Amino acid sequence: MGPFTFFNVQKTKYLQLFTTVMRWLAFGIMITIAILRLAQGAGHGNPPVARVAGIPTLFGVCVYSFMCHHSLPSLVTPIRSKKSIFLLFAAIYAIIFVFYMLLSFTAVFTFSHLEDLYTLNFEPSDDSIIHVMVLQYFLALFPVFTLSTNFPIIAITLRNNLKTLFYKEGRVFHFFIDKIVFPLLTITPPIILSFFTNNLEFLVGITGSYAGAGIQYLVPAFLVYYARQDMKVTLGSGIKNKYCSPFRHKAWVFIVLLWAVTSIVFVTANHIMMKE
Question: At what angle do helices 55-66 and 250-275 cross, to 10 degrees?
């Protein structure tokens, strides 16, 4: 997938449709099989009510679930009538929440041990809970399907963001810098990291604890704060937006920042205690 970073993906419609179909199909299969297993009384899971050691992973999972927010601007912009926009997205996030709950609760009560990559619990084996070979291999290859479509798009987006970060008005990047250096800067860190660890729980914990806190809490809070300040200067304070957020008060920004700092401190302390 790395070579795709050196090119552009002009139209991702069919890639996204393919990924969406694969995800819904895989989620549906895993949830259905787990429910059938539980209905037969064959569930082996006995999860604790809470586990403090799982907090770093929790933040990592929150970050990846938060990734659905990055599509909001492109979804909101084409909508002409925004009168029911809050109800629309409330319904969308309710469906996402239900899927997360179904997938999570059926998993923890069906399996005594969960692999870092949940689909590996359905891989072909002598004691596999799936006896249909096609479904076994489909779920085993499901991460390959999603990564094959998502990685090029995410990598190209990161490459373009790096270009924007170093761009100066009136300066054109040299061909070697533009076509070789920036793509290499994008794909080199994940390649190097893959040689040192394949522990997904560790990676999700780290990205969720620190990078995730910045992506999910700090950056949006600062963007909202300074965007509102800029709009007051540009448009004035007399204009009222009837579609404004119910969390428009400035206090919410500081609550998010406080929560981000608290989360980082708490998770760092947990990392230290786990090592000891």
Answer: 140
Rounded CA-CA distance 208/59 in Å is 5
Interacting residues of 96 by C-beta distance below 8 A, sequence separation 6+: 65, 68
Sign of torsion, CA 194 23 29 94? positive
What is the rounded distance in angstroms from the CA atom of residue 212 to the CA atom of residue 218?
9
d(CA 76, CA 59): 27
* C-alpha dist (Å) from residue 92 to 43, 104, 125, 218: 30, 18, 37, 24
| 126-146: average pLDDT | 74
pLDDT tens digits along 27-56: 888 888 888 888 888 778 888 887 776 766
pTM for the full predicted model: 0.64
